[in-house]
Amino acid sequence: AVKSIREVRPGKNTEVLKNSEITGCYSEDCTFSIMYGDDYSAIDLIALTAEEANIWVAGLNFLIGLIKCK
Q: Residue 67: which residues within 8 A CB-CB, separation 6 or more?
């Protein structure tokens, strides 16, 4: 659920995304992670373009902000 999202981190900021065998051919601008739960678990994602990643990051941050305002 969106309520469990703690933050959205753009770029290669987790151990999985720092692994060049997994993300070597992808630009850092195309990667982002959703940190969720009390232990800050990560869902690591790679978008096809930097623009697409920015749309996801901005949209998720907007939803997080709406929930925090309630």
A: 2, 3
